[in-house]
From TrEMBL:
<dbReference type="GO" id="GO:0005829">
    <property type="term" value="C:cytosol"/>
</dbReference>
<dbReference type="Pfam" id="PF00175">
    <property type="entry name" value="NAD_binding_1"/>
</dbReference>
<dbReference type="Pfam" id="PF03929">
    <property type="entry name" value="PepSY_TM"/>
</dbReference>
<dbReference type="Pfam" id="PF00258">
    <property type="entry name" value="Flavodoxin_1"/>
</dbReference>
<dbReference type="InterPro" id="IPR005625">
    <property type="entry name" value="PepSY-ass_TM"/>
</dbReference>
<keyword id="KW-1133">Transmembrane helix</keyword>
<feature type="transmembrane region" description="Helical">
    <location>
        <begin position="12"/>
        <end position="33"/>
    </location>
</feature>
<feature type="domain" description="Flavodoxin-like">
    <location>
        <begin position="341"/>
        <end position="474"/>
    </location>
</feature>
<dbReference type="GO" id="GO:0050660">
    <property type="term" value="F:flavin adenine dinucleotide binding"/>
</dbReference>
<dbReference type="InterPro" id="IPR008254">
    <property type="entry name" value="Flavodoxin/NO_synth"/>
</dbReference>
<feature type="transmembrane region" description="Helical">
    <location>
        <begin position="172"/>
        <end position="197"/>
    </location>
</feature>
<feature type="transmembrane region" description="Helical">
    <location>
        <begin position="130"/>
        <end position="151"/>
    </location>
</feature>
<dbReference type="InterPro" id="IPR039261">
    <property type="entry name" value="FNR_nucleotide-bd"/>
</dbReference>
<dbReference type="InterPro" id="IPR029039">
    <property type="entry name" value="Flavoprotein-like_sf"/>
</dbReference>
<keyword id="KW-0812">Transmembrane</keyword>
<dbReference type="InterPro" id="IPR001709">
    <property type="entry name" value="Flavoprot_Pyr_Nucl_cyt_Rdtase"/>
</dbReference>
<keyword id="KW-0285">Flavoprotein</keyword>
């Protein structure tokens, strides 16, 4: 079933019951402190597992002339009702080992009584009880639908507790806390429903009616209390109540109510006159009450308090997410039938919509008849000349909910007029199926229309990349639009403080190395990206990082007027600045592969310097393309160290401005057989550097594998044996 059905059910249930759930949660948190406050009273004197019923009855009988009953409550406090030598009735807590009176029974405070009443019935008696029970059931369903949403998001039960990418505060914590409080909330709600059933007498009736044959009661052999087997062998921890005989007549007996059964015991011989198992309904009711209220366990009461507090957060974050999704509503100036430019959007959390809306507004401002809608609304657009699709990817490279029917609708639509299309994919390199849905859309559109531009992918909502695409589109269409900076002002999140440890002088190519230390411990590894915000606004610059000794290593080429490289170049040692670490799992050193070939040109070497320092088992080769021998000085010491420590098995240097004028692809050609063999035996090739180098390297690799392995390069690409991070 599609994710949307579960999301709408989850939302509809939440909307219909949130006021009641809010009240029940707030009062529930307060009530969780009632058992805690009771448990902290000093009446818990002995370990009831170590005291037998015989011991307690004996010591009570020796101390008091008359005993009515002894009870053990949920807090393991012993409560008794006795008469003293002076004829006074003493009721309250007692020490079960010494029969010493400890104090009066705690009375529930007026405040807790008031809150309990609000929690149970909203002061509306039976009507209120009914609504509270119903809301408990709705919350149970919300938890189930929420669990299904998490299962869908995590792609199966096995990955239920797998790491979650923190893209959005509300979304991240809604899922993380949802997973943690799942079991307690299911228990709270299921027991809440059960207790409501009990209050409305909807459970099977239970009575314990002992059938005692009084004619058969014997007075011999007489046994003292300490000799009676059932008293000797039963620990106080098992006991709910001990009712004492009314008189010393043999017809009067002990009634011993245990957790699992109720026994009638002859007070003279110790014979068991009747025994009835506690009905399951009673056991479940007791269990439900304890689980629902936290009675008897401080730890469980605390868990309940935290889980219930989480419900309040779920209400807030759930609605915040819903409002964020609805915020960017689509408003159109022209009807679909008169528009020439159709923008269709696939967005789950609204950011792609922000970009698409900004583009739409600029087209309108430029006097173009544009129309914007969701991808799922695809239909025939009779006057359209251009179709622009902007879509995010979710799940396992899947469509967003407002785009999941697009491809089907496209294929089913009979009347297509001629138009040119462009696809912009929004995604994140932190996921294995980067922008996969955009690729699927592009392929589907190719079957119907002419492509204006090749598909363009945008990692992590990069404004910079989006503007690059806008520029390309403008050039291709001869339309002049530009997106105002403010329209895409999405504030960068999750910034971390980094300190500059060292920075080298620029080398002959105006390239320098900079080492940064995260102020706090952050998880990252070589191949991840560092996003910096040189102008303190939305504009971000991404750099591939190497991790050496826990620090971030970057290799940066200083560009004239380059805002990113200029910013890094101007940083002084020991100064701090804020940046974001972006996980790029598609470009991590493979853990399983025995042999890895790394190919870099220029500053693309940075992640490899980190990977080599982290390398433990792999056979590694590095192909590095630089301009001159002098360019290499910047990296020479590190490379020499890695060769000496056998972390780098083979090094190939291609210099493009020395006599031989070699590029990395020439070096690859020289070692073609070794490259082919590496891929053949499941080795991995990693490429980092300029896009131009990347294209040439792919062409060379294609030739090599076709010649030696009789396979196209796509065969190895599909097996994830070719990894790249090029710019
Ligand atoms: C649960 C989840 C799954 C995602 N899966 C993918 C994915 O498989 N491939 C990808 O490239 N991006 C994936 N992303 C990243 C989003 O596509 C990206 O953040 C996009 O910019 C979000 O756009 P939106 O705010 O319009 O929904 C995923 C994000 C989330 C939260």
């Amino acid at each position: 079933m599609t994710i949307s059905i579960w999301r709408y059910s989850h939302l509809a249930l939440a909307v219909s019951s949130f006021v009641f759930i809010l009240l029940a949660s707030v009062t529930g948190i307060i009530l969780a402190f009632q058992p805690i406050s009771e448990q902290l009273e000093p009446y818990h004197v002995e370990n009831l597992n170590n005291i037998s019923v015989a011991e307690t009855i004996t010591v009570f009988k020796a101390t008091y002339p008359e005993i009515i009953d002894i009870k053990v409550d949920d807090n393991d406090f012993v409560i008794a009702s006795v008469f003293t030598e002076e004829g006074d009735n003493l009721e309250g807590y007692f020490n079960p080992k010494t029969a010493q009176y400890l104090g009066e029974e705690i009375e529930t405070s007026k405040f807790f009584q008031w809150v309990t009443s609000l929690h149970r019935s909203l002061f509306l008696k039976s009507v209120g009880r009914f609504f509270v029970g119903l809301c408990s059931f709705l919350l149970f369903l919300i938890t189930i639908t929420g669990t299904i949403l998490i299962l869908k998001r995590q792609r199966g039960i096995k990955k239920f507790f797998a790491k979650i990418v923190n893209e959005n505060f509300n979304q991240y914590w809604h899922v993380v806390l949802g997973r943690l409080s799942l079991i307690p909330i299911l228990i709270i709600t299921a027991t809440g429903v059960y207790l409501s059933f009990e209050k409305f007498n909807l459970l099977p009736e239970t009575t314990t009616d002992h059938q005692i044959d009084f004619d058969a009661i014997s007075e011999t052999p007489k046994q003292s209390i300490s000799e009676i087997a059932i008293f000797k062998n039963t620990k106080l921890s098992e006991v709910k109540t001990i009712e004492f005989p009314f008189s010393e007549d043999v017809e009067d007996y002990f009634t011993l109510t245990l957790k699992s059964k109720e026994l009638v015991v002859n007070q003279i011989t110790g014979d068991i006159l009747s025994s009835i198992e506690t009905p399951l309904v009673t056991i479940f009711t007791r269990l439900s009450l304890n689980l629902h209220t936290g009675k008897g366990s401080i730890i469980w009461a605390l868990i309940l308090a935290v889980a219930t507090a989480n419900i309040l957060f779920f209400i807030y974050s759930g609605f915040a997410m819903t409002f964020a999704r609805r915020k960017a509503r689509l408003k159109n100036k022209y009807k679909k039938d008169e528009a020439e430019y159709i923008i269709l959007v696939g967005s789950e959390n609204g950011s792609t919509l922000t970009y698409a809306n900004a583009f739409y507004k600029q087209l309108i401002a430029a006097g173009k008849k544009a129309f914007i809608n969701q991808l799922n609304s695809y239909t025939n657009y009779p006057k359209a000349k251009h179709l622009i699709v902007m879509t995010a990817t979710y799940g396992q490279g899947e469509a967003t909910t407002n785009a999941n029917k697009f491809i089907q609708r496209l294929n089913n639509e009979a009347n297509h007029n001629e138009l040119q299309f462009s696809v912009v994919g929004f995604g994140s390199l932190a996921y294995p199926d980067f922008c996969q849905f955009a690729f699927d859309v592009d392929l589907a559109l190719q079957q119907k229309f002419k492509s204006l531009l090749p598909i363009f992918t945008i990692n992590d909502k990069s404004v910079e990349a989006f503007n690059q695409w806008v520029q390309q589109w403008c050039e291709a269409t001869n339309i002049n639009v530009s997106i105002p900076e403010k329209a895409l002002a999405i504030a960068p999140k999750q910034l971390k403080k980094l300190k500059v440890l060292s920075k080298t002088e620029n080398n002959i190519d105006e390239t320098f190395l900079i080492t940064l230390k995260p102020k706090k411990h952050h998880q990252f590894t070589s191949g991840d990206l560092l996003a910096i915000y040189p102008k303190n606004d939305y504009r971000e610059r991404l750099y591939s990082i190497g991790k050496v000794d826990g620090n971030i290593h970057l290799s940066v080429k200083l560009h004239e007027n380059g805002i990113g490289s200029g910013f890094l170049h101007n940083l002084q040692n020991n100064t701090a600045f804020k940046a974001r670490l972006v996980k790029n799992s598609a470009f991590h050193l493979p853990k399983k592969s025995k042999s890895v070939i790394m190919i870099a040109n220029g500053t693309g070497i940075a992640p490899f310097l980190g990977m080599l320092s982290q390398n433990k088992n792999s056979e590694t080769q590095l192909y590095l393309g630089l301009r001159t021998a002098a360019s290499f000085n910047l990296y020479k010491n590190q490379i020499d160290d890695y060769i000496a420590s056998k972390k780098l098995s083979k090094f190939h240097l291609a210099l493009s401005r020395e006599n031989e004028k070699q590029y990395v692809q020439d070096k690859l050609d020289e070692n073609a057989q070794n490259i082919a063999q590496t891929l053949y035996s499941d080795g991995v090739i990693m490429i980092c550097g300029s896009l131009a180098m990347y294209k040439s390297v792919l062409a060379t690799l294609e030739d090599i594998v076709t010649k030696y392995n009789n396979k196209p390069l796509s065969y190895y690409q599909n097996k994830q044996q070719i990894k790249s991070d090029c710019y």
